[in-house]
Specification:
Elements: H1 2-18, H2 24-48, E1 55-56, E2 65-67, E3 78-84, E4 87-97, E5 102-106, E6 113-115, E7 121-126, E8 129-132, E9 147-152, E10 156-170, E11 173-188, E12 191-195, H3 198-204, H4 209-218, H5 227-242
Parallel strand pairs: 2-11
Antiparallel strand pairs: 1-6, 3-4, 3-7, 4-5, 5-6, 7-8, 8-9, 9-10, 10-11, 11-12
Helix pairs in contact: 1-2, 4-5
Protein backbone atom coordinates (compact mmCIF):
# COMPACT_ATOMS: atom_id res chain seq x y z
CA UNK A 1 0.00 0.00 0.00
CA UNK A 2 2.81 2.44 0.95
CA UNK A 3 4.76 1.63 -2.21
CA UNK A 4 1.70 2.03 -4.42
CA UNK A 5 0.81 5.34 -2.81
CA UNK A 6 4.39 6.56 -3.25
CA UNK A 7 4.32 5.65 -6.95
CA UNK A 8 1.03 7.50 -7.30
CA UNK A 9 2.54 10.57 -5.67
CA UNK A 10 5.61 10.55 -7.93
CA UNK A 11 3.41 10.15 -11.01
CA UNK A 12 1.23 13.08 -10.02
CA UNK A 13 4.22 15.32 -9.34
CA UNK A 14 6.03 14.44 -12.56
CA UNK A 15 2.83 14.80 -14.57
CA UNK A 16 2.31 18.29 -13.19
CA UNK A 17 5.91 19.31 -13.92
CA UNK A 18 5.75 18.04 -17.50
CA UNK A 19 2.61 19.98 -18.36
CA UNK A 20 3.08 23.24 -16.51
CA UNK A 21 1.80 25.45 -19.33
CA UNK A 22 -1.87 24.57 -19.38
CA UNK A 23 -5.18 26.30 -18.94
CA UNK A 24 -6.22 27.58 -15.53
CA UNK A 25 -8.92 24.90 -15.25
CA UNK A 26 -6.50 22.09 -16.08
CA UNK A 27 -3.93 23.56 -13.71
CA UNK A 28 -6.41 23.51 -10.82
CA UNK A 29 -7.42 19.94 -11.64
CA UNK A 30 -3.82 18.75 -11.69
CA UNK A 31 -3.05 20.63 -8.49
CA UNK A 32 -5.94 18.83 -6.83
CA UNK A 33 -4.67 15.49 -8.10
CA UNK A 34 -1.29 16.13 -6.47
CA UNK A 35 -3.00 16.96 -3.17
CA UNK A 36 -5.02 13.74 -3.37
CA UNK A 37 -1.88 11.71 -4.13
CA UNK A 38 0.00 13.37 -1.28
CA UNK A 39 -2.84 12.67 1.14
CA UNK A 40 -2.98 9.06 -0.02
CA UNK A 41 0.75 8.67 0.57
CA UNK A 42 0.60 10.24 4.02
CA UNK A 43 -2.38 8.08 4.98
CA UNK A 44 -0.50 5.00 3.83
CA UNK A 45 2.49 5.92 5.98
CA UNK A 46 0.41 6.69 9.04
CA UNK A 47 -1.46 3.41 8.69
CA UNK A 48 1.54 1.17 8.16
CA UNK A 49 4.53 2.67 9.94
CA UNK A 50 4.39 1.59 13.57
CA UNK A 51 7.23 3.96 14.39
CA UNK A 52 4.77 6.85 14.21
CA UNK A 53 2.66 5.33 16.97
CA UNK A 54 3.68 6.43 20.42
CA UNK A 55 2.87 8.73 23.31
CA UNK A 56 2.66 12.48 22.89
CA UNK A 57 5.81 13.92 24.43
CA UNK A 58 5.32 16.39 27.27
CA UNK A 59 8.34 18.54 28.08
CA UNK A 60 8.66 18.55 31.90
CA UNK A 61 10.78 21.72 31.77
CA UNK A 62 8.58 23.67 29.38
CA UNK A 63 7.74 26.33 31.95
CA UNK A 64 11.25 26.70 33.31
CA UNK A 65 14.01 29.04 32.27
CA UNK A 66 16.71 26.82 30.82
CA UNK A 67 20.30 27.09 29.66
CA UNK A 68 21.17 24.63 26.91
CA UNK A 69 19.04 21.66 25.93
CA UNK A 70 18.51 18.05 27.06
CA UNK A 71 19.23 16.35 23.72
CA UNK A 72 22.17 14.56 22.19
CA UNK A 73 24.18 17.05 20.08
CA UNK A 74 21.32 19.29 18.94
CA UNK A 75 17.96 20.62 20.09
CA UNK A 76 16.81 20.49 16.45
CA UNK A 77 15.51 17.45 14.61
CA UNK A 78 18.26 15.33 13.05
CA UNK A 79 17.85 12.79 10.29
CA UNK A 80 18.56 9.25 11.38
CA UNK A 81 17.40 5.64 11.37
CA UNK A 82 15.61 3.48 13.90
CA UNK A 83 14.90 -0.23 14.26
CA UNK A 84 11.47 -0.35 15.87
CA UNK A 85 9.57 -3.57 16.57
CA UNK A 86 11.97 -5.35 14.23
CA UNK A 87 11.38 -3.01 11.29
CA UNK A 88 14.00 -0.58 10.02
CA UNK A 89 12.97 3.00 9.27
CA UNK A 90 15.42 5.34 7.58
CA UNK A 91 15.46 9.11 7.00
CA UNK A 92 13.42 9.70 10.15
CA UNK A 93 13.51 12.99 12.09
CA UNK A 94 14.86 12.03 15.53
CA UNK A 95 15.90 13.51 18.83
CA UNK A 96 17.52 11.66 21.72
CA UNK A 97 16.69 13.21 25.09
CA UNK A 98 19.68 12.44 27.32
CA UNK A 99 17.99 13.74 30.44
CA UNK A 100 15.04 11.34 30.20
CA UNK A 101 16.68 8.60 28.09
CA UNK A 102 13.88 8.93 25.56
CA UNK A 103 13.90 8.71 21.76
CA UNK A 104 11.60 11.26 20.13
CA UNK A 105 10.33 11.39 16.56
CA UNK A 106 8.39 13.95 14.59
CA UNK A 107 5.00 12.89 13.23
CA UNK A 108 5.09 13.57 9.47
CA UNK A 109 1.49 14.70 9.40
CA UNK A 110 0.87 16.72 12.54
CA UNK A 111 4.53 17.57 13.30
CA UNK A 112 3.78 16.61 16.89
CA UNK A 113 6.61 15.20 19.01
CA UNK A 114 6.13 11.51 19.75
CA UNK A 115 7.87 9.60 22.55
CA UNK A 116 8.74 6.03 21.59
CA UNK A 117 8.77 3.00 23.86
CA UNK A 118 12.36 2.07 24.75
CA UNK A 119 11.66 -1.65 24.98
CA UNK A 120 10.51 -1.71 21.33
CA UNK A 121 13.68 -0.06 20.00
CA UNK A 122 16.38 -2.38 18.68
CA UNK A 123 18.81 0.39 17.79
CA UNK A 124 18.84 3.87 16.35
CA UNK A 125 21.34 6.20 14.74
CA UNK A 126 21.87 9.95 14.72
CA UNK A 127 24.69 11.91 13.08
CA UNK A 128 26.97 8.91 12.60
CA UNK A 129 26.39 7.49 16.10
CA UNK A 130 24.65 4.16 16.63
CA UNK A 131 22.87 3.62 19.93
CA UNK A 132 22.05 0.13 21.18
CA UNK A 133 20.66 -1.54 24.25
CA UNK A 134 22.83 -4.11 25.96
CA UNK A 135 21.50 -7.59 26.81
CA UNK A 136 21.50 -6.82 30.52
CA UNK A 137 21.98 -3.75 32.66
CA UNK A 138 25.57 -2.97 33.63
CA UNK A 139 26.70 -1.18 36.78
CA UNK A 140 23.10 -1.25 38.04
CA UNK A 141 21.95 0.80 35.01
CA UNK A 142 18.36 0.33 33.82
CA UNK A 143 18.02 -2.32 31.13
CA UNK A 144 16.33 0.14 28.76
CA UNK A 145 19.38 2.42 28.76
CA UNK A 146 20.99 3.21 25.39
CA UNK A 147 24.72 3.08 24.75
CA UNK A 148 26.65 4.70 21.92
CA UNK A 149 28.58 1.92 20.15
CA UNK A 150 31.95 3.55 19.48
CA UNK A 151 33.88 0.50 18.30
CA UNK A 152 32.40 -2.80 17.15
CA UNK A 153 35.15 -5.37 16.75
CA UNK A 154 36.43 -8.39 18.65
CA UNK A 155 36.24 -6.14 21.66
CA UNK A 156 33.59 -3.44 21.81
CA UNK A 157 33.62 0.07 23.21
CA UNK A 158 30.45 1.72 24.48
CA UNK A 159 29.69 5.06 26.02
CA UNK A 160 26.64 5.87 28.07
CA UNK A 161 25.67 9.49 27.42
CA UNK A 162 23.39 11.29 29.81
CA UNK A 163 22.58 14.72 31.15
CA UNK A 164 21.75 16.01 34.59
CA UNK A 165 20.41 19.38 35.62
CA UNK A 166 21.69 22.07 37.93
CA UNK A 167 19.47 24.87 39.13
CA UNK A 168 20.93 28.24 40.08
CA UNK A 169 19.20 31.52 40.99
CA UNK A 170 19.43 34.45 38.60
CA UNK A 171 17.62 37.65 39.58
CA UNK A 172 15.08 35.78 41.68
CA UNK A 173 14.47 33.27 38.87
CA UNK A 174 15.78 29.72 38.95
CA UNK A 175 17.76 28.80 35.84
CA UNK A 176 17.96 25.12 34.88
CA UNK A 177 21.27 24.20 33.23
CA UNK A 178 21.96 20.91 31.47
CA UNK A 179 25.24 19.17 32.28
CA UNK A 180 26.43 16.44 29.91
CA UNK A 181 28.21 13.40 31.30
CA UNK A 182 29.39 10.02 30.07
CA UNK A 183 30.54 6.61 31.21
CA UNK A 184 32.83 4.43 29.11
CA UNK A 185 32.65 0.64 28.96
CA UNK A 186 34.74 -2.03 27.32
CA UNK A 187 33.25 -5.41 26.42
CA UNK A 188 36.03 -7.97 26.50
CA UNK A 189 36.04 -11.71 27.06
CA UNK A 190 32.36 -11.85 27.89
CA UNK A 191 32.18 -9.08 30.46
CA UNK A 192 31.64 -5.33 30.63
CA UNK A 193 34.41 -3.30 32.22
CA UNK A 194 33.86 0.27 33.41
CA UNK A 195 36.63 2.55 32.14
CA UNK A 196 36.95 5.56 34.44
CA UNK A 197 40.49 6.65 33.60
CA UNK A 198 43.68 5.77 31.74
CA UNK A 199 44.78 3.32 34.43
CA UNK A 200 41.52 1.38 34.15
CA UNK A 201 41.84 1.32 30.36
CA UNK A 202 45.39 -0.07 30.43
CA UNK A 203 44.50 -2.61 33.11
CA UNK A 204 41.61 -3.84 30.95
CA UNK A 205 44.20 -4.72 28.29
CA UNK A 206 46.60 -6.24 30.82
CA UNK A 207 47.78 -8.94 28.40
CA UNK A 208 49.13 -6.25 26.03
CA UNK A 209 49.56 -3.35 28.40
CA UNK A 210 52.89 -2.09 27.08
CA UNK A 211 51.65 -2.13 23.51
CA UNK A 212 48.57 -0.18 24.59
CA UNK A 213 50.76 2.49 26.19
CA UNK A 214 52.75 2.72 22.96
CA UNK A 215 49.53 3.07 20.93
CA UNK A 216 48.43 6.11 22.92
CA UNK A 217 51.88 7.66 22.70
CA UNK A 218 52.33 7.09 18.97
CA UNK A 219 48.91 8.55 18.20
CA UNK A 220 49.47 11.47 20.60
CA UNK A 221 46.29 10.66 22.45
CA UNK A 222 45.74 12.11 25.89
CA UNK A 223 43.27 9.83 27.62
CA UNK A 224 42.11 12.62 29.92
CA UNK A 225 41.41 15.00 27.02
CA UNK A 226 40.20 12.42 24.47
CA UNK A 227 38.91 9.32 26.27
CA UNK A 228 36.60 8.17 23.47
CA UNK A 229 39.20 8.42 20.71
CA UNK A 230 41.71 6.76 23.03
CA UNK A 231 39.43 3.79 23.68
CA UNK A 232 38.67 3.39 19.98
CA UNK A 233 42.41 3.34 19.20
CA UNK A 234 43.09 0.86 21.99
CA UNK A 235 40.27 -1.42 20.88
CA UNK A 236 41.44 -1.41 17.27
CA UNK A 237 45.08 -2.09 18.24
CA UNK A 238 44.13 -4.88 20.62
CA UNK A 239 42.11 -6.63 17.93
CA UNK A 240 45.11 -6.39 15.59
CA UNK A 241 47.33 -8.00 18.19
CA UNK A 242 45.06 -10.93 19.08
CA UNK A 243 43.83 -11.84 15.60
Amino acid sequence: MVKAAFVLLLFALSYTAAFSQVSKTDSIARHNSVLVALQTYQNAISGNAKVFNGVDYVNPLAKKRVKGHPNFESEDWMEGFILYEGQLYENVALQYNLLLNKVLIENVQSHATIELSNNLIGRFGINGHTFVQLPSGIDAEPQDMFYDLLYDGGVKVYVKRFKTIKETPDQKVMVTEFLEKRKLYLFKEGRYIAINNKKAALNAFEDHKQEMKKTLSQNRLSFRAMPELSMIALGQRYDELVQ
